[in-house]
Task: structure prediction
Amino acid sequence: MPRVLPRQPAPELVVPTLSGTTWSLADAAPQRFSLIVFYRGLHCPICTTYIAELNKLVPEFATRGVETIAISSDTETRAREAQTKWGLPQLTVGHSLTIGTARAWGLYISSGRGVTSTGVEEPALFNEPGVFLARPDHTLYWASVQSMPFARPHFREILAALDFVIAKDYPARGEA
Result:
């Protein structure tokens, strides 16, 4: 599995969004960072609360110059169902992430195991969670990748860390 290193160019990332546009990291122009949150998909009960929390905090990230997007390998139909069921009016939601792109970002890939506790069938293959911050020059600043749906970074803690990073002009770490 490739490792995406801080201070290096992030892998290419282009996905369709539920707003009907295409989101591209190469075209992103945030003031400070792009927050890219890869989630497992509609079938995941933990994603329900995790992504809904991100949706609530979109304005907080925006005040810090951070553009947010949540992306899954779900089809447009499944992503739209998640957007509706989970109540995500403020969040840019990307869909149809290819497994190849997920691997390029260093995400773990799982095989579907049937119907989850949400009553939704897992896709044949899907990405596990990952959270990334990329700078406006599209280099990686920070990464957190999980092989399981549990123990993800909390968005309020990321906001507090961003306050420190911005105030201290803290450099990306983990580049060696």
